[in-house]
Amino acid sequence: MLDIRDLHVFHGPIEAVHGISLSVGAGQCVALLGPNGAGKTSTISAICGVAQSSGTIALEGADLSKASVEDRVRSGIAVSPEGRRIFSNLSVEANLRIGAGVRPDRENVARDIANWFETFPILGERRTQPGGTLSGGEQQMLAIARALMSRPKILLLDEPSLGLAPRIVAQVFQMIDRLRSEGMTILLVEQNARQALKISDYGYLLNNGRIQAEGTPADLGGSKDMMAKLTGLG
Amino acid sequence: MEYVAQQVINALSFGAEYALLALGLAIVFSVMGLVNFAHGEVIAVGGYTMVAFAALVTANPLIIIVGAVAATAMTSVALERVAFRPVRYADPTTGLLTAFGVSIVLQNLFLLFISPRPIAVTSLYFLDAPVMLFGVQISSLQIFESVTTVVVIVGLVLFLQKTTLGLAMRAASLDFEMVRLTGIRANRVFALAFLISGLLAGLASVFIMARRGSVDPHFGFNPVLKAFVACVVGGFGSLPGAVLGGFLLGAVEVAMLVLLPQDYGGLKDAFVFGIIALVLVWRPDGILSPAREKGDKQ
Predict the structure, then answer these.
(1) Taking an 8 Å Cβ-Cβ cutoff, which residues of chain A contact chain B?
(2) A2-231 falls under which CATH superfamily?
(3) Were A51 and a residue from A45, A66, B82, B159 both cysteine, which residue would form a disulfide, CB within 3.0 to 4.6 Å?
(4) Which coarse location class describes where this protein primarily resides (chain B) (predicted)?
């Protein structure tokens, strides 16, 4: 589904990611793990087109590395970004509508919004409230729902557990697991390595802008030392 | 009593004009953080279009008005494409300087290719006729102005709340990159902001023309200054703030005209700006300044 080859990411003169390659197969959930500053968010930004990069980023074989941000989303990439970035001045419902801004079919959009309100009754109750009034966990759910409103082929999740209470983190991971079981292709960026690997089919360990290790959750979980060294969480 | 009513209506109609002008600045600022000082020259383009239509095409005022509004809308969109798009993601100062540059270039084009002297247009005088309303004598222009502003505000509110593109414009005022990450094209959002701004400039140019009766290269200077002041008072970036600031400015101006003794007439603007300054002491960011976004990890 998503194939990344020799990706370098730059922030001005600084190179944050030094030539990584990774791929996410259709229907897979792949975890990209690593400590702060490893280059995880830089990688996500490069895939979305908001950071300068070189290398190839191919979605279903089509190279998107020269495409605009908007065209990448339109060809099937959706992101729930780091920090969630909910439109706090707009209602919950308006956030979802903007998420579906690229879809012309109004009726299906309305149906999808209704489905989300069923999945997350709390969002339904607060549909007219400004997004900024939601709690962190609710905002994360909204950010994921907003991303999925575009009916993407692949969902990029950047640190969905960041800043949330442990109980809420568990809910978020349940939600991601459910999406995966429904067939969604997911690239999950996390510091919370143990939980992320539990719901992933494959994982990459990123440190200092390079992939240090990759493998199935069993492989990666087996090398406890490396996990501890790279994530600080064991 | 009649006198008071008349002055209240004066204040409202001035306020309506300023609100219209301020919205034109605010809508562009809210989306791209640019104070478009070339807005005044867009208004002047409306004035010159009325001259051209009246002289060359028709005396039908409706066609003249539609022509002027269409011309300002197209000018505004064209300016975005040619001048502001290249500096879209640049430093805000770059945008500001670009706007001044565009403003100077357009003014000089008017000077060189049209005329440094005022040119009269008489086709719109009919807008400014005396009318009796509930025993108060007012100008029909004041009614047109107030009604137009109300219609514009209602239309804008509906657009910004009901349509996806309108919602995207509001979202863009907070986090433009996130709007792009939903796939909504930045070019469309920017072009739309300038289109709306241009339409507002066109309407304003019609009213200014109906009042002044002539256009010169500095036609837009005073209006854009008033718009800027109204935006600053109301809170830059806030559309309700722009409307509020416009009406407040209108009210303060009329109040000063009425209350100041004849001898102090020349000091009207000094008093107006003095009061505005006091408002800013109370609310340095403007009365309805948008709340700063506090992200949880940026």
Answers:
(1) 48, 50, 69-70, 73-74, 79, 81-85, 87-90, 94-95, 97-102, 136, 146, 150, 162-163
(2) P-loop containing nucleotide triphosphate hydrolases (3.40.50.300)
(3) A45
(4) membrane
